[in-house]
Input
Amino acid sequence: MNAPLLSAHALRIGYRDGPDVLHEVGFDLAAGECLAVLGESGSGKSTIARALIGLLPKGTRCAGELRFDGAPLDAARIAACRGRDIAMVFQDAAASLHPLRRIGAQLDEALRRAGNACAVVAALREVGLDDAPVLAARYPHELSGGQRQRVMIALALASSPRLLIADEVTAALDPLAAAGVLDLLDRLRRERGLSLLFISHDLHAVRRIADRVLLLRAGRVDASADRETFFAAAPSEAARDLLAAARRGEAPPAVIGEPILQVVALQADYARRPALREVSFVLPRGAALGVVGASGSGKSTLARVLLALQRGHAQTLRVAGADPFLLTGSARKAWRRRVQIVFQDPGSALDPRFSVADSLREPLRLHGLGDVAAQRATVGELLAAVRLDVALADRRPHALSGGQKQRVAIARALALDPEVLVCDEAVSALDLSVQAGILDLLRDLQRSRGLSLVFVSHDLEAVRALCDRVLVLEGGRVVEQGDTRSVFAHPQHAHTRALLAASGLGPT
Amino acid sequence: MAGDRRLRVAVGLFVLLAAASLVGPWLRPFDAWHTDWAQLQIAPGLAHGHWLGSDAIGRDVFVRTLLAGRVSLLLGFGAGLVALLFGLAYGALAGTLGGGAERAMMRALDVVSALPFLLIVVLLLTLFGRSAVLLVLAVGAYACIDLARMLRAEAARLRVLPFVQAARALGAGPWWLLTRHIGPNQLGFAFVYLSLAVPQAILVESFLSFLGLGLDEPSVSLGGLLAEGVQELEDAPWVLLAPATFLALLLIAFTLLGDALRARLAVRSA
Output
């Protein structure tokens, strides 16, 4: 084998005053190869990327050896290579593009710097943006997330790099857009002989694109194997756990019963544009409905309308026995006890000034339930119900992990003993192993409390594991609905098939 | 950390100035209105006891400057607090309510801020006499317009966050959201702004006093001293320089304080 393009040996990095975040990490990346660095949050993945392009903060301790193209990669060489031989694409394309300049102008600047003027249209075409002349005249906010990420890739390619570092590039995209970006990266690797360092926590993306997989765990290399071995044989315990967490099991059988949600011809706007058109469905009590679709399909708007957090108009709307938009004052407040919601972002799910106990007591105080002693007892019960230690009651959100915060948010939603729980992407921002725990919890709560669930998600695997029926939205319309097993096994609509294929779940 | 050092410097400078204005006047045997006939317009020096000199009618500049600083600080803080209370209440309420109520409240604010503020203050002060209370209220009202705008924007940002939405879903009304979630979470932001509103209030008050619209004699604020100093600029520049330096230091202290607090807040919310 030829000498690798990039190699790291005994890399040890620690941030100022903190413990080391990387311990003796080593890897090789050959020309034209794709190495995936896989790991959960805090495992040190992004630190590797930052070290490679010299973006570590001042005062960082760094030992070990990096070699690029046969020579040591020190600070001076990194500065010379960055944006030339080594390019990088980040997760958040919206924040990486200049918001006030047209796409074409930004790309032109990058191409000129690389001595390659007048190739904007060709560069956009290469990243699969066929409508290049139109897109070049647009501003970043006028593009979809997937298009922006493609523009970022075109910018990174402007200098004809030999190594492309992709740091969680698909994490913010829905599965359809993510699949497109992955296919693009794979094609570029073949056509340009590009080496790809693909940093991700997304097992599915890694399976789709990587030649070899490096599993990081708490800053150490836990396993290193080629893709087939990794996914077939799970070379370490952590890899086995990860693969097990990703296998979420089959859909539960369809529940039959009296309807708790009845929606006929629901319309709603988002940002003054129609977001839901003629949406109709029925959910039996105790059932779980998965709502799936690409970004902008109206999933979250549907969740907000069911909670009456946003206005909607329907021919018939019965949510837990009432049409919330016909209720006012105390009747509306009483109705709210029956329907609750959990949001996506654990970081802002809880008031930063409230302790866990304060957050859990809030619903009780709002409805004047019990005295302080009774409320404290309820807090204990709620924490136990979401499998959290009672000792966490006095902590504030910043001292909790993402998964713990999300459990507290679920406990708060359960405090009023609701009949319907709406989860708006409630597990999407969490690590895979944490997701598995929360999905387990939701399934148990559904059974033990007779909860009816509306589970809004772009994660089809999670939907299959939890929901007995599914609703597919596209552009605010229902394109397909039915029980999960039959929809996943025999998708009727092209959009459903595309979503399933992008998630690697297509009918075989 | 660089931000901590800045905060220490700012707080140090501020405490020094505040302490000087509180305690300083008692260090000297003169009171602010005592006329030293033997030493009219004497230059600064230690030998004759007038450390910063005396003015045309023999009053001690050191004592007068510090006393005026005390008055300016009190008026500035008073006006700043008025601005904080009204601005926080108005802005947070508008931002919490949202929708049509929010738009109406902000348009009303636009109308008020379009009025020629100084003209109205001058009018009020001439109509109702020049009292400290009126001055504090007028300057506070002026500073509160900007504060209300900023807190409205901050409240609108908080309003769409999941924990506020979750509280709405739990049955919380606007009052609950305002008093338990949005208001408390704005306090840090409001205090940063207070450190910018107080110097603004001091400056506006000095300006009014400089024009002779401030407090009646014998009370005197820094602006009044500046006006006196300008009269004697050619013969006794120290009469102007002392209060001008004090005012400048005071404003610098507040600016540094605001900067440092803002850096602290940014770190905490990140």
Remarks:
- Chain B has one domain: 2-33+51-269.
- The mean pLDDT of chain B is 84.
